[in-house]
């Protein structure tokens, strides 16, 4: 496990233990109070510089989510996800989990990540992409049918991608995924493939 994953896992573990203690002590007794507690905990962690400098952007992102989205931010769920992703053997997880991990990492680096409905993917209302904006756009239908009940990939996932491809490739590779250019007139169209997946 690399140090970045170890540090993020440690941050998430500390947050989850603090929340567990607050629940046991009756300080957090509802989802809304969980979110408020974790938002305050993250604000204190940021102010007191409790964690290594490399985690400043992670703390800032979590804090912003908690403040702006409130209950919808699901801070306990995000911390649990970060802890499981950083603490366990990522390559031992199923394809869908590893893709979610990669896309979460992409979002943390400032990329746009969107899942597009059929009308946004093609046709008159197709979303116009800017080559100067780093983004990854997935097809909702392909995501819905692309994995079996065990989270294993069944079909190549089409994605429209703009931005720094080498940076994206590095994030995908860390999660056991790869990108291939699709044979298409669409210059932004790529296929996302899990390690070991072979198209029929």
From TrEMBL:
InterPro entries cross-referenced by the UniProt entry: DUF2913
Pfam families cross-referenced by the UniProt entry: DUF2913
Protein's recorded name: DUF2913 family protein
Species this chain originates from: Candidatus Pantoea floridensis
